[in-house]
């Protein structure tokens, strides 16, 4: 029976009830040891009615074993693995040791855990209980939290209990579990132990109403003390004394078994190790030792009430008992227990027991930990791999090998989404690297990459530019491009040109030469792009996008970035996906697929925050701010731009600072505030490295020309046009030429240029903007009949796109041209959310629900849930009808996917 926990139970009931109705969620119970978190979890688990219950409990003895907790919670439902998308199923099988793993991907694994839990939730829902989360191994914790953050459409309630301030990242709902209310504590003490009210009040004060302490102390008081006839002992038994005297009262053999169980929970191992250890020494005078001793000791330990059997495991009734057992043991005794357990185990368990038995540096033990780390890495357990490698480094005698292992630990921590730990490990590796130039360069390259993702981009340039390899020069050029440091990009390009010809060399050298005005630059970039058919990796496609961008072909750059995103999702690019999605989201926006851009940025933002990639967070916020500007959402635009600038400016990420500043300028332009927009665009063009970026200046030139013309600055408009012409001199794609023609139409007031732009446009949103500008000029030239067709097209496009400021402007012009018109009916797909639009598009591409789930890191049931919502919205009933609608809307002027 629970006393005084109605508020906590009510909070848990709400989470479970919502999950039962298909609105899943997670909650954290947080409190000190003994406060009653486990009792609350037990009570909540049975309140789900027909909902299935899966449970795991973190064990300190297994906190270094990759996927120990995940194995416990998922093992009962492994029969449903075949229902998962194959990449997810393979990842989960590898994590659980059911299949070999090649290159673990924590995103695929997390999505696989989510999908398997979703399968387990059918048909009545699922309550997933995770107790003692502070001791759950890192690999399991990462996978479980990935799932916990994505339960919105699942019938799953995840309940976490954690001691103290241990973080439970990304689960915002927390229930603080404190001591019992005084009345409830008194009721419990009276009903269980017959404690009189006055004594109960004193006990509550002394124990802060901790239920465990109250129960244990009351059970050891004399009847006279319980009734108040004698004073309470001073001090009360507490802390280690709470269970320490009960541990001390055990026989030597039972204490030995308890110590083994505190180190290793597996029953068979506990018994075998106890028998072997007892054979080494006389446990009691005159007692035979050896086989059978363990079972006798286990019976005594169970009888004492300190531990129990839970299937094939020995479990202490409370974690504080384990602590008391440890405190009662000598360090030498603990090491000997570890050594014996190492002899009886293999794989990861053996490695960690050897590490626990080690008294100093030991290369043999370190090598075992390195092997354990590699096994964890192949299964996607990067956090556990980092821990194993860091411990291996501590045990490594030679400084060079120690530095190399610390470096590898840093990489694992980074890929596990722990950038702070990664940077600390890398700093330690640098201290031990000594005079090894090769290792020092490897460490420097990693430092630069870490700095570029989460720190100061200008510092990343300084670090990376010290290397001479093509890879380091390319990384340095990338960092310099983020900063917007053109001089550095030029210098790095010239250094790269000294390397043998190839795609990467041609791209890096070509960009540098092109920025320096060297005529050889565009030729190198064209040669690099001619090799696109040979590319396989997402990073290579991003370099191809950069090559196209520096040729002035933003549409081709968008296509290359889109390819990078597609490759990254299926290639296991652990740790890099949020970064790739920066460019994929930008590509979708530039191509006019604004709804898709928003969905990609929202996904990328979530993944970047989880991974701790601060600069990538800024990138996605900046892109979302631009999209908000196009929708006329002033508050959202300003907030997201402000958040992006707060990261990008101090981190010297000029590319993202420039995009965020562009969002604010575009907002002014959308709302007709031409003078303010012109001032902002002028400031963007003048911003130096770290605050702005040449690529942002080039890509926003059409908007800058429009703002200058609107503000009446004809000289400024012509200057912006001339700069845009220079940048686009080598551009050959239709859309790039269309934008240049529109700029000429604005700056030179040329109707022919506007007409040329409309003939060339492949981006329907940009075509609508050109049509609006031409229509406005025709109406003001008193040619309303010719203006109306252009204005009507623009208005209908903007309405269907959801670009409200542009739509209002076009409709006002249309009315002034003599046509009132009715608001066009929304496009068929306008009723869908960005996520639903993405799923609909993938259905049209012929992907099954499983493949869509694998692509978007969702569960197949979540995909089916979205389809279930999509069908009635569109008045259809099948995937074939949905695919047909999507195809029809995309051809040839696909306005519907713009916003």
Main features:
899 residues, disordered C terminus, two-stranded antiparallel sheet, 66% helix, 5-stranded parallel sheet, single chain, mainly alpha, 7 strands
Tell me what you see in this structure.
The protein is mainly α and 899 residues long. Helix content is 66%, strand content 4%. The chain contains 47 helices and 7 strands. The strands form 2 sheets. Strands 2-3-4-1-5 form a 5-stranded parallel sheet, sandwiched between helices. A two-stranded antiparallel ribbon has the order 6-7. Helix 29 (554-570) runs antiparallel to helix 30 (577-590), helix 37 (701-710) runs antiparallel to helix 38 (714-727) and helix 39 packs antiparallel against helix 40 (751-760). It is globular, with a radius of gyration of 33 Å. The protein starts with 5 loop residues before the first helix and ends in a 9-residue tail after the last helix.
In angstroms, what separates the terminal alpha carbons? 55 Å
Low-confidence stretches: 891-899
Strands side by side in the biggest sheet: 2-3-4-1-5
Biggest sheet statistics: 5 strands, parallel
Radius of gyration: 33 Å
Helix content: 55-70%
Structural class: mainly alpha
Strand content: under 5%
**How many E-type strands?**
7
Q: What would the principal axes of the Cα set say about the shape?
A: globular
Helix run count: 47
Average pLDDT works out at: 90
């Amino acid at each position: 029976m629970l006393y005084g926990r109605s508020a906590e139970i009510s909070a848990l009931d709400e989470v479970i009830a919502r999950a039962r109705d298909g609105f899943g969620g997670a909650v954290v119970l947080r409190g000190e040891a003994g406060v009653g978190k486990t009792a609350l979890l037990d009570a909540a688990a049975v309140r789900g009615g027909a909902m299935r219950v899966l449970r795991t409990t973190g064990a300190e003895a297994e906190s270094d074993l990759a996927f120990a907790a995940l194995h416990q919670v998922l093992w009962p439902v492994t029969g449903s693995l075949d229902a998962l998308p194959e990449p997810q199923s393979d990842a989960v099988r590898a994590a659980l040791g059911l299949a070999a793993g090649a290159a673990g991907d924590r995103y695929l694994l997390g999505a696989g855990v989510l999908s398997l839990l979703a399968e387990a939730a059918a048909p009545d829902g699922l309550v997933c209980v995770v107790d003692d989360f502070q001791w759950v191994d890192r690999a399991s914790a990462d996978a479980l939290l990935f799932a916990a953050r994505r339960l919105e459409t699942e019938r799953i309630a995840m309940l976490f209990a954690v001691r103290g301030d241990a973080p439970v990242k990304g689960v915002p709902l927390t229930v603080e579990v404190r001591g019992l209310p005084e009345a409830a504590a008194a009721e419990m003490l009276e009903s269980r132990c017959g404690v009189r009210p006055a004594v109960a009040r004193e006990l509550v004060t002394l124990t802060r109403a901790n239920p465990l302490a109250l129960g244990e102390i009351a059970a050891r008081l004399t009847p006279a003390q319980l009734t108040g006839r004698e004073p309470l002992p001073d001090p009360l038994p507490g802390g280690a004394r709470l269970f320490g005297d009960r541990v001390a009262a055990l026989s030597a053999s039972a204490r030995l078994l308890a110590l083994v169980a505190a180190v290793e929970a597996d029953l068979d191992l506990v018994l075998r190790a106890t028998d072997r250890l007892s054979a080494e020494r006389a446990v009691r005078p005159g007692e035979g030792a050896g086989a059978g001793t363990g079972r006798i000791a286990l019976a005594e330990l169970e009888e004492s009430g300190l531990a129990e059997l839970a299937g094939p495991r020995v479990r202490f009734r409370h974690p504080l008992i384990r602590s008391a057992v440890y405190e009662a043991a000598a360090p030498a005794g603990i090491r000997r227990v570890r050594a014996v357990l190492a002899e009886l185990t293999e794989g990861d368990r053996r490695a960690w027991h050897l590490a626990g038995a080690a008294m100093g540096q030991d290369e043999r033990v370190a090598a075992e930990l390195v092997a354990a780390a590699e096994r964890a890495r192949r299964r996607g357990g990067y956090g556990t791999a980092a821990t194993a490698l860091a411990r291996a480094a501590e045990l490594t005698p030679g400084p060079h090998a120690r530095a190399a292992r610390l470096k590898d630990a840093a990489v694992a921590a980074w890929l596990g989404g722990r950038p702070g730990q990664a940077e600390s490990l890398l700093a330690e590796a640098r201290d031990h690297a000594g005079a090894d130039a090769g290792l020092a360069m490897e460490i420097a390259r990693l430092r630069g990459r870490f700095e570029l993702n989460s720190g100061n981009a200008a510092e990343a340039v300084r670090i990376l530019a010290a290397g001479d390899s093509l890879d380091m020069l390319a990384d340095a050029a990338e960092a310099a491009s983020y900063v917007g440091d053109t001089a550095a990009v030029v210098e790095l390009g010239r250094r790269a040109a000294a390397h043998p010809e190839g795609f990467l060399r041609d791209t890096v050298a070509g960009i540098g030469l092109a920025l320096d005005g060297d005529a050889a630059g565009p030729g190198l970039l064209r040669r690099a792009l001619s090799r696109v058919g040979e590319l396989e990796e997402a990073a290579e496609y991003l370099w191809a996008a950069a090559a196209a961008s520096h040729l002035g072909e933003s549409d081709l750059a968008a296509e290359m970035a889109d390819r990078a995103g597609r490759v990254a999702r299926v290639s296991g690019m652990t740790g890099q996906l949020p970064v790739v999605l920066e460019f994929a989201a930008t590509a979708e926006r530039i191509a006019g697929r604004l709804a898709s851009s928003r969905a990609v940025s929202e996904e990328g933002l979530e993944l970047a925050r989880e991974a701790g990639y601060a600069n990538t967070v800024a990138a996605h916020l900046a892109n979302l701010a631009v999209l908000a500007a196009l929708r006329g959402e002033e508050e959202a635009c300003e907030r997201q731009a402000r958040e992006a600038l707060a990261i990008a400016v101090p981190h010297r990420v000029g590319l993202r600072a420039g995009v965020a500043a562009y969002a604010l300028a575009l907002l002014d332009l959308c709302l007709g505030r031409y003078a303010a927009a012109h001032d902002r665009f002028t400031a963007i063009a003048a911003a130096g490295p770290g605050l702005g970026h040449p690529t942002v200046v080039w890509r926003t030139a059409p908007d800058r020309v429009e703002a200058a013309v609107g503000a009446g600055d004809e000289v400024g408009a012509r200057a912006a046009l001339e700069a845009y012409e220079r940048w686009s001199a080598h551009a050959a794609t239709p859309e790039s030429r269309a934008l240049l023609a529109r700029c000429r139409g604005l700056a030179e007031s040329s109707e022919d240029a506007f007409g040329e732009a409309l003939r060339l446009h492949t981006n329907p949103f940009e075509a609508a903007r050109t049509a609006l500008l031409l229509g406005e000029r025709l109406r003001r030239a008193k040619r309303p009949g010719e203006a109306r067709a252009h204005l009507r097209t623009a208005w209908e496009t903007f309405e269907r796109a959801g670009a409200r400021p542009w739509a209002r402007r076009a409709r006002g012009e249309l009315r002034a041209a003599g046509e009132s018109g009715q608001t066009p009916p929304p496009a068929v797909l306008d009723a869908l959310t960005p996520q639903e639009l993405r799923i609909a598009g993938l259905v049209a591409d012929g992907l099954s629900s499983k493949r869509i789930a694998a692509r978007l890191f969702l569960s197949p049931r979540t995909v089916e849930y979205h389809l279930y919502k999509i069908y009635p919205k569109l008045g259809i009933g099948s995937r074939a009808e949905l695919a047909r609608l999507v195809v029809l809307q995309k051809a040839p002027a696909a306005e519907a996917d713009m916003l």
